[in-house]
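Q: I'm writing up a methods section and want to include an example of the input and output format. Could you take the sequence below and give the corresponding predicted structure tokens, formatted cleanly so I can copy it straight into the document?
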Amino acid sequence: MINQRPILYSFRRCPYAMRARLGLLYAQITCELREVTLRNKPQEMIALSPKATVPVLQLASGQVIDESYDIIKWAMTQNDPADWESSITQSDSDELVAENDGPFKSALDHYKYSARFPDHPPEYYRAQGEVFLKKLDQRLQDSLYLLGDSQTIADISIFPFIRQFAHVDRDWFFTAPYPHLQKWLQQFLDGVSFKAVMTKYAPWKPEDIIIYFPDLNQGHHSSLGAP
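A: Here is the clean output for your methods example:
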């Protein structure tokens, strides 16, 4: 029997899963949450998505969406309370997210796990990532968010990765010459919605009581950077 609500396989600290949870929270779509341990992934998830990476969303219809950006796009087709979809050119968001998920994510991985890539010092990989940081900071000079003065899908899709980059060396990041990007990031870090998507849960087991995400009774803001 297929669950009447979507089922989300997630991992709290994964930026892709974080992105998906932010999108589902924005759209106020309640899911059954199954927290995954990456070293012991449940067979139920692997059966749905053989690539075995989080997030994986199984809809009530049985359809499976296993790309985080696609999960957000699907969520917006169900409910778009701030009318994000009509407020931007979708290609602008797609282009910026593609750069984040491609060259920037590669630089981020090399920077964060520089011991695995000993051909260059961490600063070398950090400089590669700074190409994207500079681009974002320039955008934020003239607007509150990445695609204008209203938050959009681009902001919630990119924020988890900038957070991860910043946390490699917080002292460096928050003193680097990116004041607009720092302000943008801090707004998300301080927001009630970010705290809501970062609640800790024990790894899921089939016999567990169902955990629902988000808890809409908590009254989280649809503006994800809201204080």
